Amino acid sequence: MSDREFTGDVALVTGATSGIGRAIAKALGSGGANVVASGIGAEAGAAVVDHIRDAGSEARFLESDLSGTDGWSTLLAEARKPFGPFSILVHAASPPRPESQTVLKVTEAEWDAMINTNLRSGFFLAREVAREMKEKTIPGRILFVTSLHAYAPRNLPHYSASKAGQTMVVKELARALGPDGIRVNAVAPGAIPGGGFAADVSTLEKRIAMGRTGTPEDVAAGALALLSQKSGAYVTGTTLAVDGGLALHDWIDAPTDP
Fold first, then answer.
1. Is residue 120 one of the residues assigned to a domain?
2. Is the pLDDT at 258 greater than 60, yes or no?
């Protein structure tokens, strides 16, 4: 991937004020893309915009809450204005997920906010952006930030269910949009401290093949590989695990001297 490979691209990145979304927005901007960064927190959004502008690209921040039923449409109406049609959409937004929101304790409001943000808003944003990509014959790229918990229980049922749903949405969109040259993929982060993730890192590191937890920048690197029209040109409908080998963990401990 060249340093400015994304020059000429216009990207909308949700969840861009923290964690993985922020890292992807910055990486796209550093790669030459003009970026509309959406999320919650004006100060954090301004910092992302400043970083992208310092890297030589244009950027704009939009405060956006996707936890209701109409947040996605409000965002899109504003987001289309500054730079023209999008060639890239990254949906990284997700509500905080306290460890207390377990199967027996999660409320209806918490459930709805998670499903609306991750699944409902993700699908409708992607569909509407894809319609414009198709109309304008843009070789678009759409990326969802999912999770290993799309496949493995987390004791946070609303979160895991939303991520499992996103995984199938990626496949549905990819199949429908492939003939139009629009690629749809996902990255599934492993243990990335920060954002919505809070757990005992020292315990987790023992379960990760590479011996460390990841960083948002690790995930951003995988995301850009999928978004690249060079390295990812023939990839659609797939989910790339960026987990350092966490998914390889077996509940039976491996021999200390294999």
1. yes
2. no
